[in-house]
Amino acid sequence: MKRQLILLSLTLGMYTARAQETISPAAPQNKPVYLTNATIHVGNGQVIENGTIAFSNGKITAVGSNIAAAGGDATVLDMKGQHVYPGIIAPESNLGLVEFESVRATIDAREVGEINPSVRSIIAYNADSKVINTLRSNGILLAQVTPEGGIISGASSVVQLDAWNWEDAAYKTDNALHFFMPPLAPLGGGRGAVPNDRLKAALEQIETVRTFFREAKAYQQEGKHTATNLKFESMRKLFNREQKLFIHCDLVKEMLVAIDFAKEFQLDVVIVGGADSWLIADILKQNNIPVVLAQPHALPVMQDDDVDQPYKTAAQLQKAGVLFCLSNEGFWQQRNLGFEAGTASAYGLTKEEALSAVTLNAAKILGIDKTTGSLETGKDANIAVSTGDILDMKSSVITRAFIQGREINLDNKQKQLYEKYEKKYGLK
């Protein structure tokens, strides 16, 4: 009986293994590649018709309309009728930290305790997550892996989505510390009055964080410590401005508190969420505070707001000159990020401004714009090729994608299941 159980377990294991797609990371680029005759969307607003982009050793070497493909062993790919874009960047994601939201053992996004600046999300990142491949199929090639839980949740890192492990995936480590501000409004939403006891508790929590920051800053200024404080030590990059402070909040009063933090501690602050940011766009501009707009497909904050307010907030920030990018909640929803940028383009942004909101703007906010975010000479060859508009769900089909010059596999579990049942029911 025992032998039979072992054989049964092995058999089931074989079928389980076959049920999962096997996608290995691509090998490093070993010869120059030219994508020719394409419509190239640079990411900074520029569009090159019938253009060529060349890249070698993972770096873009030329972009333009009069570039001759070199001979030798170079690979020349004719992209006639197709569009070439910078890879989309997904800020604020728990991708690779959560696999099944209903299974606790697959959730590595939260740590015990309220103030955990020493937590590093990158070391918990699962490069083998089956969700990652579904993002790549829609042209999303980088993501900011963000911890959650507590008030100070820890440090996020930017990863590229074609890696053997978290060390390979790391693109920019510990780029930001995350402060989840207690809400200063009713749990049900709205800008109305807050019960005194809950408002008092929220204000006390904010003051606790402020005190922690003051103590950490004083610790940094000490010449010699009698004892090492790991939480204070982990704040060093923040006060040196090597790291940004991402403050998660939505309402005006909360964002004003965030601006006070930036002023008092001389920090690079980014607002995450920013549902009401359109109301104080001028103040955000004056204080040079960028915004990561979360979940553009959402209901307005107040009943008397325009029903399409979340869709047009991006255009209002653009008009005010506020640096912003778009994000989404969770991990699997990130695959729709480009299409949500498309919605913003229907509510006031131009197509190229909407593209920048998920490419170059995101790179600037995450501190990686010197290496990615646009198709410019010297930057990493993070490139997506589509048969149509990458911001349009109906026309976009990603045919090729490159991360640091490596052409990646665009297969995923959903595609395999589609093909499987397409054959079963004779739909092909």
From TrEMBL:
Residues 345-406 form the Amidohydrolase-related domain. Gene3D superfamilies: Metal-dependent hydrolases, Urease, subunit C, domain 1. The keyword Membrane does not apply. Keywords: Signal. Residues 1-19 form the signal peptide. It comes from the Bacteria. One of its GO terms (molecular function) is hydrolase activity, acting on carbon-nitrogen (but not peptide) bonds. Pfam families: Amidohydro_1. The keyword Cell membrane does not apply. PANTHER family: ALPHA-D-RIBOSE 1-METHYLPHOSPHONATE 5-TRIPHOSPHATE DIPHOSPHATASE. This is Imidazolonepropionase. It comes from Chitinophaga ginsengisegetis.
